[in-house]
Amino acid sequence: MDRPHRSTIHCIDARVIEQQSWPGNQFIVRLHAPDCARTATPGTFIHIRCNPDIPMRRPLSIMRANASEGWIEVLYKVLGHGLTALSRAEPGDLVNILGPIGRGFRPDSARPQAVLIGGGVGIPPLVFLAGTLAAQPPAVAFLGSESPFPFSAATAQLPLPGIPAAASACMPLLEDIGIASRLASNAGLPGSYSGYVSDLARGWLETRSAAERAATTIYACGPTPMLRAIKELATAFELPSQLCVEEFMACAVGGCAGCVIPVMIDGKRQMKRVCVDGPVFDGAAVYASP
C-alpha cells in the first residue's frame, strides 16, 4: 500500500524562537524545526508535546514555514492545561513535535482563482496557502472570528467588489503580498463585516461572471458549522472546494483511528482518518447525507 506520508513525518526537538501573545488568549509560536520547515505544505500540521509532563500531544496547523531559515509558525488558542503549558514556553526552550503531518491543499492550475476562507484558529492554513499561490490571478481571502483576530488589522487598500463599505479591515500580512482580504465577525470587531464569513464571501462571488466562476476554487478551514456553510456556498455557485477539517485526535499518524469521519467516494460512504487521509478533503465528499 502506498503510504507517502510515512517518510515525511519528522520527530524533532524544536527550539522556541519567539512567542507572541494576542487578545482572546491566542498565541503564535515560532519554532526552529528545519526538517519540518523544508517539507511542510499548506494544510499540513504538527503534533506537539506541550510539556514533558503532559504526554498527550496537540495538533496545530502550520501557519507559515521558512525553509531557508528553518522555522515554522503555529497559531493556537489556549484551551486546557496542555496549551496553557505551551503558552508559558520561552525562547530557547525545546518542545517535541511530529510533523509535518497530513495531506494538504492541492491548488488546481485549471481553476487558478483561489478564494480563501478561514475561521478562528482555522485561519493559519489559509495564510500558508496564500504565500504559495501565484500572483495571477490574485487570490482573495475572507477571514472570520468571534474572538479578536490574532493580528493587528489595517484598513484595506486593495479593492474587492461586492463588499459592504463598512467591511474595511484586512489582514496586513496578506495585503502586503498582494492578496485582498476582508474580515467578518458577529462580535462587533472594528472594521469587520457584521455576520458570517460565508455570507461575506457570497457577496463577492455574486459579482463574478460565469467565466470567472469557471476559473474559481474555494479553499477553507475552520469549525465544522463554518465548513458546512462553505460547502453549501460552493454547491450554490457550482464551485469545487477543498476543506481542511478540524477533528480531535490521539496519535495523529493514522494508528489509532480516533479521528475518522465519513467521506463519500464514488457514491459510497467510507471512513477516513483526518490526520493522514486529510486533513484536506474534497468539499463535495465531506458532510454529505448518508
Structure, described:
The protein is an alpha/beta fold. The protein folds into three domains: 4-101, Translation factors (Elongation Factor Tu (Ef-tu), domain 3); 113-239, Rossmann fold, CATH 3.40.50.80; 247-290. 18% of the residues lie in helices and 33% in strands. It has helices at 34-39, 80-87, 123-130, 172-176, 197-205, 210-213, 224-236, and strands at residues 10-22, 26-32, 45-48, 58-66, 71-77, 94-101, 113-119, 140-144, 154-155, 169-170, 180-185, 193-194, 216-221, 241-244, 260-265, 268-273, 280-282. Strands 12-11-8-7-13-14-17 form a seven-stranded mixed β-sheet, sandwiched between helices. The protein is globular, with a radius of gyration of 18 Å.
